[in-house]
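tool=predict chain=A
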Amino acid sequence: MQLSQIRRHWLLVIEAIAIAYILLAYVVLPALWTHHEREPGLASLPMVTRTGTGIPGDALNVGLVGSEQDVLRAMQASGWFPADPVTLRSSIEIVGSVVLDRPYHDAPVSALFYEGKKERLAFEKPDGRSADRRHHVRFWLVLEAGTDGRPVWLGAVTYDRGVGLSRYTGQVTHHIGPNIDAERDLLMHDLSEAGMADALFQISGVGPTLFGRNGGGDPYYTDGEIDVASLVANGIKRTTPPATLPPPPLVALKDQIWHAVGSAMPP
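tool=predict ok
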């Protein structure tokens, strides 16, 4: 093969690689997790909370559609307790719960901020006796009216696996479990089992994340999707499983690949 032919061959290879990269990076991969079409008003919003000092906090991974009363009814019917506000008394109670291993089902949660606003609602589900281990979620009202005319809430649900010191500030805090998708799935399951979810669907979240860190420096991983439950109105329970709206095919494929990867990560 002549030198000119070799050069031409490699030029064609380089061009093919460049075209493949452009298609993958700017067409295929963005399409894999861009699917805000069910709630277009969320498309431009950030999907990560922040601490009071501006450190990136928990990733948003759940959403609810319904009035504030619908949310309160649904969460309580699903076995999640409204969290007490942070006061001197509640702070003393949570310390006593952890140290003495005694129940505190509505223990307070520390504040996180989304778009500069503190969470409007917070709930928890105990895991064991004391408040050092618990499932908990914070919610922010992000749309006064979504596609069906009802309010839309976004939330961050995580699992507190124990009390320790923040890796960033040294302050006393709860450390979260890394598998935040499992917590998202638990909440959606609880709402569905309680008859509080009328329909379930996905929207785009933070995107596939393997080595995320929250505001306390704890690692987390996620497929980057937000599961949303459209709640029943006025607490009237649904007697059949909620309607499930499937994600776009490319997103479903991405999720399958991600879950295969995620299965090798620590629980």
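The radius of gyration is 22 Å. Residues 90-104 have pLDDT under 50 and may be disordered.
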